[in-house]
Structure formats: C-alpha cells, structure tokens
From TrEMBL:
<keyword id="KW-1133">Transmembrane helix</keyword>
<keyword id="KW-1003">Cell membrane</keyword>
<protein>
    <submittedName>
        <fullName>MFS transporter</fullName>
    </submittedName>
</protein>
<feature type="transmembrane region" description="Helical">
    <location>
        <begin position="157"/>
        <end position="175"/>
    </location>
</feature>
<feature type="transmembrane region" description="Helical">
    <location>
        <begin position="114"/>
        <end position="136"/>
    </location>
</feature>
<feature type="transmembrane region" description="Helical">
    <location>
        <begin position="249"/>
        <end position="272"/>
    </location>
</feature>
<feature type="domain" description="Major facilitator superfamily (MFS) profile">
    <location>
        <begin position="1"/>
        <end position="335"/>
    </location>
</feature>
<feature type="transmembrane region" description="Helical">
    <location>
        <begin position="195"/>
        <end position="217"/>
    </location>
</feature>
<dbReference type="InterPro" id="IPR036259">
    <property type="entry name" value="MFS_trans_sf"/>
</dbReference>
<keyword id="KW-0812">Transmembrane</keyword>
<dbReference type="InterPro" id="IPR020846">
    <property type="entry name" value="MFS_dom"/>
</dbReference>
<feature type="region of interest" description="Disordered">
    <location>
        <begin position="340"/>
        <end position="372"/>
    </location>
</feature>
<keyword id="KW-0472">Membrane</keyword>
<dbReference type="Pfam" id="PF07690">
    <property type="entry name" value="MFS_1"/>
</dbReference>
<feature type="transmembrane region" description="Helical">
    <location>
        <begin position="31"/>
        <end position="52"/>
    </location>
</feature>
<feature type="transmembrane region" description="Helical">
    <location>
        <begin position="284"/>
        <end position="305"/>
    </location>
</feature>
<feature type="transmembrane region" description="Helical">
    <location>
        <begin position="311"/>
        <end position="330"/>
    </location>
</feature>
Length: 372
C-alpha cells in the first residue's frame, strides 16, 4: 500500500507529462486534483480490498503527474531572484503534510472512523481544486516535454550527478525514517504518545529546514545538498548510541528534520540547474527518481529490519548518506559548473565546466522539434 503508489508515481511522471505536453499546465493540475478527490471518495466507500487498491493506484498517478508539473512551476511564475524561496514554498507541503496531515487524519479517524477521514480529505482536495481555478495565474507558455528531451538530458554530467545524489540521500532517508517508530519503541523505549510528539517535533524542524534550504540552495546548491546529507549521516549513525535516551533521540530528530527538510528543494534545484532550458523535464526526472527511490528505500529498510534490527537500519542508512556526501564532493573536486554558469560561491572557477558533456539549449530545443 505504501510502496506501490511511489512506483506508480515514478512511472506516471514521465508518461503523463509527455502525453499532456500540449495541454495548459494549470488545467492539468486541476485534473490531478479531481483524480485525487475521486481516489479519496472511492476509499471512503470501498467495500473490499480491491477498491482500496484502485484508490491507491489513482493516488500514485496523481503524485507522479502533479509533482512533475508543480515542482518546476516556481521559475515560470516568479522573478529569477525569487525562485529559491518560491520553490521552498512549494515544497513546504511535504513537511506540512507530516505536521498537520497525519495528526489531523488520525484525530478524525479516532473520532469518527477512517471512512470519514477519507471523506474529509476528499472535500479538502475539492477546495484545493477550486483555489487553483480561482487564484493560480496561468503559467507562461513553455516548450512541452518530449521523450527525446528527457533522453537528451542524460547526456549531461550534472543530470547524472543529480540522479546519483538523489538516489543515495533518498534511499538513506526513507530506508531509515520509515522504521524510526520501531526504533523509538524498541531502543528508546518510548510510549506511543511520546512517539507522536517526537514526530511532530521532527515535522516542525522539517518545515524550518525546507525554508532554510530554499533560501540558500540557489546560491550554493552543492554545499546545501551535501550538508543536508551529511547531517542525515551523522544523525542515523549516532541514533543507535545516543538514541537510547529520550533527550538524545529528540535532539537527533530535530537535526534530522532540519536536514531532510532541505533535501527535496535541493534535489529539484540541482535538476533545474543541470537543464535550465527544460525546467519541466527537470521536474519529471526529479519526481520519477525521488518516488522510485522512496519506494526502494522503504522496501530495503523493511528487509533489513526483518533480518536484523532497527539499529542496523540506522547504521546502514548513515553509511549510504555518507556516500552521497562523497559524491557531492566529487562534483566539486572535478570543478564542474552548471550550464547557466551557476556554481557554489566557494567553488573554484572551471575553465571547461561540463559543457562538453551537457546538452546545450540548442540540442534540447532540436530534440523537442524532432519529436513534433
């Protein structure tokens, strides 16, 4: 139920974005919101497992399509100097969902039953749909995403680095965080009420990390992304040691929340800077890679927990996050810059950059034209 929507989102992200390339993006966001509302209402009315499964399929399709379009809209709606902050606002939905959505859903479910929870979520989704229609300005026209454009992006070394870094940090995070509750129960020996409070604190820290990362990532994408992964590595490696006490666990969860809060906005920014002339295609790769790795991380973490312990999951996750830091350092050591000339302020100038390996604006445009 958790893994399948992520895998579906990874597959639907490129397929739906390419298939709807000629459609207005605001219209498509509204279509995805309508699909999500129907998924919630179907789950509320479901009389058997298979209807619940269909609703989860609809959720997976919605996630892939919505985020592929929505994640990259910031630079089409605001001035260039405000893109980092606007992207952070978009991605604030992720930690806000943890802080507000999960407790609210649990509260409604305890009060009136799980079916009512889905009805309320469906009604809220319709409210979002109405707000999109009334308040969101139409994005300026942009070249539609084509499969040939996506293929051309893989020629760029920065795109390949973005895929590698995202894979490592998301695998590390979801392979561990998915099983943080068993860790708190078995190692920290906290009650269910305390765990709820701890995760709420983590979520609040995630909101702070999202906006802190968004404020800095445009200027220092490499440093912010690498620092976030480094903090996740430190936290997960220390949890089996310091997480035996409640105070130690809370302190590390706060750092973890701040660090992971910066990950989605950093990953999206890296993809966008790797292909500045194809922002929607960058969002497609970000969404597909993120969702696929999220599912793989949760699945891998489960296998490790079944054969060892939550502490071992944390240790392995820390090692993987440390590998991501090394990969980010390798990007710096090679003196690579981005196609638009952007680079970390503390990076050394690079004479050649990665222009020889990155698709130029003309190549991406040519690829798009050839697919018409």
């Amino acid at each position: 139920m958790m893994t399948m929507p992520g895998l579906l989102a990874a597959v639907s992200a490129p397929l739906l974005t390419v298939a709807t390339a000629r459609f207005d993006r605001r219209l498509m966001l509204c279509v995805f919101m309508a699909l999500l509302a129907m998924a919630n209402f179907l789950a509320a009315a479901a009389s058997n497992y298979w209807l619940i499964l269909v609703s989860r399929i609809m959720v997976g399709i919605t996630i892939g399509g919505f985020w592929s379009i929505g994640a990259g809209l910031a630079e089409r709606l605001v001035p260039a100097e405000s893109v980092g902050r606007a992207t952070a606002v978009i991605f604030s939905a992720v930690p806000l969902g943890s802080v507000l959505g999960v407790p609210a859903g649990t509260f409604i479910g305890d009060l009136a039953g799980w079916r009512v929870t889905f009805v309320v979520m469906g009604a809220l989704t319709i409210g979002v749909l109405i707000m999109l229609l009334l308040a969101m300005p139409a994005p300026p026209p942009a070249g539609g995403t084509r499969l040939s454009v996506l293929r051309a992006m893989f020629r760029g070394v920065n795109t390949r680095f973005a895929l590698l870094l995202t894979f490592l940090v998301v695998l590390a995070h979801f392979g561990t965080y998915t099983y943080v509750t068993p860790f708190l129960e078995q190692v920290t020996h906290t009650s269910s009420q305390q765990i709820t409070l701890f995760l709420l604190i983590y979520g609040v820290a995630g909101i702070a990390g999202n906006f802190l990362g968004g404020a800095m990532v445009t200027r220092r994408p490499r440093a912010v992304f690498g620092l976030a992964a480094g903090l996740i590595a430190v936290v997960t490696l220390l949890l089996p040691i310091l997480g035996r006490s409640a105070i130690g666990a809370v302190a590390l969860l706060i750092v973890w929340g701040v660090a992971y809060g910066a990950v989605p906005v950093s990953s999206q920014t890296w993809f966008a800077k790797a292909t500045p002339h194809a922002p929607e295609a960058a969002s497609v790769l970000f969404t597909a890679s993120f969702q696929a790795t999220f599912s793989l991380g949760a699945l891998t973490g489960g296998v490790v927990v079944d054969h060892s312990s939550p502490s071992m999951v944390m240790t392995l996750g820390g090692i993987i996050a440390a590998c991501m830091v090394l990969a980010a350092w390798a990007h710096f050591a090679r003196g690579l810059t981005w196609p638009d000339g952007g680079q970390d302020r503390d990076a050394e100038p690079n004479a050649g950059g990665d222009d020889a390996e990155s698709p130029s604006r003309g190549e991406i445009t040519s690829a798009a034209r050839q697919s018409l």
